Amino acid sequence: MNQKKEEILLHNRFDGKVILITGAGSGLGQAAALQVAKEGANLSLVDLNADSLEETKSKVLDVAQNAEVLLITANVADESAVNNYVNATVEKFGKIDGFFNNAGIEGKQNPTEVFGIEEFQKVVNVNLNGVFYGMKHVLKVMREQGSGSIVNTASVGGIRGVGNQSGYAASKHGVVGLTRNSGIEYGQYGISINAIAPGAIMTPMVEGSLKQIDPDNWEEVGKQFVEPNPMKRFGKPEEVGYLVAFLLSDQSSFINATVIPIDGGQSYKY
Prior knowledge:
Elements: H1 3-10, E1 18-22, H2 27-38, E2 42-47, H3 50-63, E3 69-73, H4 79-93, E4 98-101, H5 117-145, E5 148-153, H6 166-186, E6 191-198, H7 204-213, H8 218-226, H9 237-248, E7 259-262
Parallel strand pairs: 1-2, 1-4, 2-3, 4-5, 5-6, 6-7
């Protein structure tokens, strides 16, 4: 398919739709925001960092000048803050058609026996509790609407082990369980709930992870990290954005309660 035909196929896929995205200030959240905005969506963008949100908004308006963009600074690990960002979105737009439940952190890297309790709880509070809170409050809105699509960010670390990252792996396995369980519960209401499981995608969080291993030679560590990958490279945030946009669109309406790896095939190699 040539580029012109592809643009016609995807053009206006989100016209009139409202998409809520957490962790929207950078990485996968920002990439997804740009993709759905190009296709006509209005956006409610949530992040802990207000400056990062402003950066994402500026980029969105560069590619979609007519998009309405609501910015909300919130900590997804705080249920009251989650309730507030959901209410603010509904107050502004009247509905939530799609929810990219994406905010997350990696945490420090240590073997399980020395992994700090506070660090473990911090990672779980953001990655698992934050996803649960988001689903809990957005699902109320979508059930009343009788429609909606939720995409949770899990990880290949949620479908197999990740050495020295007990908190991250445990939290992402939890996201997988929540996704499958809730998809089964809410399919009857016209709501699809799925998760993506990114592998090595070059985002600020992955860069930070590599720098934990070797701050001075992290790029070389990155090359070694992707060597086992069948595609021999890092994924790009926009490649994940394409998948998220598809799962949030009506074109994926019969995909539910599943987890889709986007990792260049690495999780299937072993």
